[in-house]
């Protein structure tokens, strides 16, 4: 598979694998055996960049990744995250920790736990999962610099952080990558975030690059999500909004038909075409979907294709927020 560089030196496959759905947010979950199988299949297909977090499970996601990839550890790059207070006991309706803390002593406890679960002596890319408003970002960056000197992490990044915060962090310890949601149906990063990253030489890792499944055409106006599915709480997936938002799927479908490929590959190829330092991390629990997603690396959208899609996007309005209100409050800090 083709590779891309995040920041100045972190070389990864141009498409990564987002592991969250194996243990969180989108039930039913795979068995341990099937989870290990799909992680190893991703590696066999050329994926070298795997994204997880201590909070996914919690802990279970990192444990799966550590077990699956231990035999090939020297050939892959592992990204995980810290920043939730795992001991606070505060959880949302989906049993996910909601309290934030990036105090240096908690970061050090978190990194040791992640190293053990991932069965490794270093983490390739260590993200602050959400910005902690009670801990100055300069303190977090200084802690990251210490962990780099100790060899426990090789690079660090931020997730869902505001441009001003990224600048402050980068001034203390250079940031390799920023992770935020970005796709054809959520393009807010184009306004301020992407220009900031380009200026500073920081890579971008879009999560939910397929719009939490929306851009694949899996959902219709009649689709309803089970109470345990995170999409059941997301405003843009509510019944009325879901029906309206089918127009984005129609755009992707038309482009896929014209290029003789699939909707997922068009959506991912569009992201890859935006900047050479963008590395999407689609997640899936299906081997067939995994192979489909990775095929996007071979889809080249011409300038005329991109212009046509941009023009069409100007006439499409997506209804509904991308997160429930309590989740959105944790972003953009």
TrEMBL record:
Residue intervals of the NADP-dependent oxidoreductase domain: 15-313
Keywords annotated in UniProt: Oxidoreductase
Organism superkingdom: Bacteria
Pfam family, one: Aldo_ket_red
PROSITE patterns in alphabetical order: PROKAR_LIPOPROTEIN
Molecular-function annotations in GO: oxidoreductase activity
Gene Ontology, cellular component aspect: cytoplasm
InterPro entries named in the record: Aldo-Keto_reductase, NAD(P)_OxRdtase_dom_sf, NADP_OxRdtase_dom
Protein known as: Aldo/keto reductase
Phylogenetic lineage: Bacteria, Pseudomonadati, Thermodesulfobacteriota, Desulfovibrionia, Desulfovibrionales
């Amino acid at each position: 598979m083709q590779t891309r560089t995040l920041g100045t030196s972190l070389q990864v496959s141009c498409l990564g694998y987002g592991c969250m759905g194996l243990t969180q947010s989108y039930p039913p979950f795979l068995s341990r055996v099937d989870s290990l199988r799909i992680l190893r299949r991703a590696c066999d297909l050329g994926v070298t960049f795997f994204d997880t977090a201590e909070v996914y499970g919690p802990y279970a996601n990192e444990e799966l990744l550590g077990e699956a990839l231990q035999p090939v550890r020297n050939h892959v790059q592992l990204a995980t995250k810290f920043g939730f207070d795992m001991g606070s006991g505060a959880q949302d309706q989906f049993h996910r920790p909601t309290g934030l803390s990036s105090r240096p002593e908690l970061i050090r406890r978190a990194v040791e736990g992640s190293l053990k679960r991932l069965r490794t002596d270093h983490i390739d890319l260590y993200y602050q999962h959400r910005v902690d408003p009670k801990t100055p970002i300069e303190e977090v960056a200084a802690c990251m610099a210490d962990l780099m000197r100790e060899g426990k992490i090789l690079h660090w990044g931020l997730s869902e952080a505001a441009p001003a915060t990224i600048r402050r962090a980068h001034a203390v310890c250079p940031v390799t990558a920023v992770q935020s949601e970005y796709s054809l149906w959520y393009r807010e990063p184009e306004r301020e975030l992407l220009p900031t990253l380009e200026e500073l030489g920081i890579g971008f890792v879009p999560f939910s690059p397929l719009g939490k499944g929306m851009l694949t055409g899996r959902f219709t106006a009649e689709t309803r999500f089970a109470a345990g599915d995170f999409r059941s709480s997301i405003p843009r997936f509510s019944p009325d909004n879901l029906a309206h938002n089918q127009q984005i799927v129609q755009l992707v479908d038309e482009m896929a038909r014209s290029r003789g490929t699939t909707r997922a590959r068009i959506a991912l190829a569009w992201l890859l075409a935006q900047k050479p330092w963008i590395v999407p991390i689609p997640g899936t629990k299906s081997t067939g979907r995994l192979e489909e997603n990775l095929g996007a690396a071979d889809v080249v959208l011409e300038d005329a294709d991109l212009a046509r899609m941009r023009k069409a996007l100007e006439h499409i309005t997506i209804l509904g927020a991308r997160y429930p209100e309590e989740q959105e409050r944790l972003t953009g800090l």
